Amino acid sequence: MLEPQSTFLFILLVLIFAGLMWWMIRTRRAAVRVIAAFVAFLVAVQFGIMAVNRYFDYYPTWGAAFADLTNAPPPKSSSSGGSDLTVVGKGHGLLSGQPIVTSIAEQQGYQFEATLPGRLSHISRYAYIYLPAQYFQPAYRDYRFPVVELIHGQPGEPQDWINVMGVVAIMDGLVSRGLAKPAVLVMPDANGGVDVSEQCLNQVGGPQDMTYLGLDVPDYVSTHLARVQPPGLGWGIAGYSEGGYCAVNMALAPMLSRRYGAAGVLSGYFAPYPNFIGGKNVNPFGRSKKLRLINTPDYEVKHLNPGQPIPEFWIGAGTGDKQDMDGASFFWNELSLYQAGAPLKFQPGGHTMAVWRSQVSPMLEWMTPILAQNATKVDQVAALAALHARECAGQGTHQKNDPAGKTPSPKPSATTPAFCHPKPTAPAKRTAKSKKPRITVKRKIGPKT
Q1: Which of the residue ranges 59-68, 153-162, 199-208 would you say has the lowest mean pLDDT?
Q2: 90 pLDDT above the threshold of 60
Q3: Fewest CB atoms within 10 Å of the CB: 177, 186, 381, 431?
Q4: In terms of domains, do 83 and 44 share one?
Q5: What is the residue-averaged pLDDT of the chain?
Q6: Are 249 and 209 spatial neighbours (Cβ–Cβ below 8 Å)?
Q7: Over pLDDT 90: what percentage of the chain?
Q8: 3-state secondary structure string, the chain?
């Protein structure tokens, strides 16, 4: 009833302000007038802040406002009651020491904070990771989960996806209703500070954000967290506002396009702005016009190489922001030459959290089934390759006791799989040695004397 955007709260503030003004006019005591004027001023300021918050729809609840303004992390999944379970297996490092109660995690999943170091970029930042309930259920013990990398806006922090956008609750609700497929959510710190804007770019002479977010983060998560897809068709990327630009630019970047199977762009822009680092605007590309062009999605999509693989795109914007709508429509038209039928969704509203919250649900409904289908195909190919490797290894065991290679290899039998046979190469043609031309020297014989 008294949440930050409730109409009742606005009416209450107006009545309080009116009462204070009436009191200030009616009283004859100077001290009371000063106090009433001061309190009325505070109420008016609060009303203005609430009006701005309601217009941009940033904080729907007091809890979200408190968590964001105090830089408080999102609440961890409950771990009380029952025995602890530490998930182990390949790459168990990210969950090492995390107390996880199986009975609770099977119902509500588990979210935690982790530091993700960058081997290539030499950047180390924190991230929030959410494991869906299915991650802990026995039926999924052999399933490698798709991953969605979520990039926040600016100003913003990773926890905004949870505290303000409510992505975990949205994801749980969609999966429980069968509208989305379970996936791991990775929410990294994209800028290294609330007042920093690096746009997920490799800054000339500065932080290598694209390398960190596109190479280091997926590699580290897939290596240190068990049963998730490696970077590729089973990974998705999505973002809103500046994070939307990050998602589309990284999805089109030649060095990253094969590392994502799907990309979601929520009110993103399609040409870069200056970065904001150290309290001032910085050109992220130095003096290179080429670097700017290859990080401008409007240019990139028009200059794709023939046959260049790119992720599938989902694009959304608010109808109340003409710049967002025009940018999304123009990019979608250019994209349609390479990828027909990409979803383009417009929601009522402007460049606000309300629009992005409303777009998270349809975006996940679209993206997670694609990633799940891709993950199944990737696993099938990997399993088939592993089976082939085992079968071929079994055919060659007879040679293990003959390190010198003196025993000739047997000819392939009818039971030997064809894929184990090395592809025969045509024997090199022997060219006859060319004989040197025989040179005969005729002696000149003079007349007899």
Answers
A1: 59-68
A2: no
A3: 431
A4: no
A5: 81
A6: no
A7: 54
A8: CCCCCCHHHHHHHHHHHHHHHHHHHHCCCHHHHHHHHHHHHHHHHHHHHHHHHHHHCCCCCHHHHHHHHCCCCCCCCCCCCCCEECCCCCCHHHHCCCCEEHHHHHHHCEEEEEEEECCCCCCEEEEEEEECHHHHCHHHCCCCECEEEEECCCCCCCCHHHHCCCHHHHHHHHHHCCCCCCCEEEEECCCCCCCCECCCCECCCCCEHHHHHHHHHHHHHHHHCCCECCCCCCEEEEEECHHHHHHHHHHHCCCCHHHCCEEEEECCCCCCCCEEECCEEECCCCCCHHHHHCCCHHHHHHCCCCCCCCCEEEEEEECCCHHHHHHHHHHHHHHCCCCCCCCEEEECCCCCHHHHHHHHHHHHHHHHHHHHHHHHHHHHHHHHHHHHHHHHHHHCHHHCCCCCCCCCCCCCCCCCCHHHCCCCCCCCCCCCCCCCCCCCCCCCCCCCC
Q: Do 349 and 279 fall into the same domain?
A: yes
Question: What CA–CA distance (Å, rounded) separates 262 from 182?
Answer: 15
Query: Rounded mean pLDDT of 153-166?
Result: 93
Q: Given a cut of 70, is residue 439 above it in pLDDT?
A: no
pTM of the model: 0.74
Q: 86 and 51, same structural domain?
A: no
Domain membership of residue 416 (yes or no) is: no
Q: Looking at the predicted structure, is the pLDDT value of residue 445 above 80?
A: no
The pLDDT assigned to 429 comes to: 54
- Provide the domain count of the chain: 2
Torsion angle of C-alpha atoms 172, 175, 181, 183, degrees rounded to 10: 10
Res 57 pLDDT > 70: no
pLDDT of residue 387: 79
| Residues contacting residue 51 through CB under 8 Å, at least 6 positions apart | 10
- Domain containing residue 34: 7-56
Lowest mean pLDDT among 66-70, 144-148, 167-171, 264-268: 66-70
What pLDDT shows up at residue 85? 44
Distance, CA of 332 to CA of 335 (rounded, Å): 5
Q: Is residue 211 part of a domain?
A: yes
What is the rounded distance in angstroms from the CA atom of residue 92 to the CA atom of residue 224? 5
